[in-house]
Amino acid sequence: MLKIVLIISWLVGYGILVWRAWRWAFVLLVAVLPIYLIRLKIGGLPTTLLELMFWLLFVKWLIDKIKRQEFSAHFWRRRHPYPFSSGIIWLVLAAFVGLAVSGFSWSALGIYRAYFVEASLFFVLAFHFFKNPLNRPLVWRALAGSAIAIGLISIYQWINGEYWAGGGERITSIFPYPNAVGLFLGPIVVLLFFVAAENLRIKKAKEAVILGGGVILGLAAIVLAKSDGALIAVAVAIWLGLWGLGRRGAISAILIALAGLVFLGYNPQEREN
């Protein structure tokens, strides 16, 4: 009962924020992405607190669009098409066929809604949000804040020996199992790395430090979780990204590769795994 009261209270508060400051509501949604861990059922349909927050955000955006008559035929002819729109439409339709094959079960509906419909609609929201260059740093900071928080919790667990019950002296931070740390933080660390590097290049030191903190603590969490797959994926993604940036990037990529080889050389356990 208490859980339901807390969820309703959170949604009411978030709904007020959505209505009064949609921009900041979007940033908050990005900052609390791990809130997907809070799961519930509505009428037998599985959902998460994050999904409910998303729908509040989307409905307000849709209402504003309708008020501004942005779905009128005149506006529709002048609009700029969304990138990857054709591919997204075909993907959603193909997934719907799979949903039909499954017999429209509740679990399949939940997966279809979360992984295809909501993901596509969030892409639309993000596309509009990112049109304003002033909004972009807010998202990077939100992601960095999330990575920093998870990293600090991970370090706290490591210092206090609060390891995963499954063994291996692996931390889990706020997640139910260690590899979830890498699955969540891996893409964020790569993204923040390049955004921080760009901020450093254009001499935005304060921004680079904030995002760099997210990279460092995010990596620390992945290392403490011993999520080897995520570490390899992060290293390869950064390596490929640097290699594609030209001569200086290629040199940095080579140095990262050498550092990785040295790491493996001095950590036979990692090499054996």
Commentary on this structure:
- The structure is a single chain.
- With 273 residues, the chain is mostly helical.
- The protein has two domains: 1-133, no CATH class; 134-265, no CATH class.
- 75% of the residues lie in helices and 3% in strands.
- The chain has twelve helices and two strands.
- The chain has helices at residues 2-20, 22-31, 49-67, 73-78, 85-101, 106-129, 136-159, 178-201, 205-225, 228-243, 247-266, 268-272; strands at residues 39-42, 45-48.
- The chain has a two-stranded antiparallel ribbon with strand order 1-2.
- A hairpin with a 2-residue loop joins strand 1 and strand 2 (45-48).
- 20% of the residues are buried.
Q: Top keywords for this entry?
A:
single chain; 273 residues; 2 domains
Q: How would you spell out the order of helices and strands?
A: HHEEHHHHHHHHHH
Helix content estimate: over 70%
Helix count?
12
Tell me, briefly, the overall form: globular
In spatial order, strands of the major sheet run: 1-2
Largest sheet data: 2 strands, antiparallel
Question: What's a quick, concise take on this entry?
Answer:
The chain is 75% helix and 3% strand. It has 273 residues and is mainly alpha-helical.
SSE inventory with pairings:
Elements: H1 2-20, H2 22-31, E1 39-42, E2 45-48, H3 49-67, H4 73-78, H5 85-101, H6 106-129, H7 136-159, H8 178-201, H9 205-225, H10 228-243, H11 247-266, H12 268-272
Antiparallel strand pairs: 1-2
Helix pairs in contact: 1-2, 1-3, 2-3, 2-7, 3-6, 5-6, 7-8, 7-9, 8-9, 8-10, 10-11
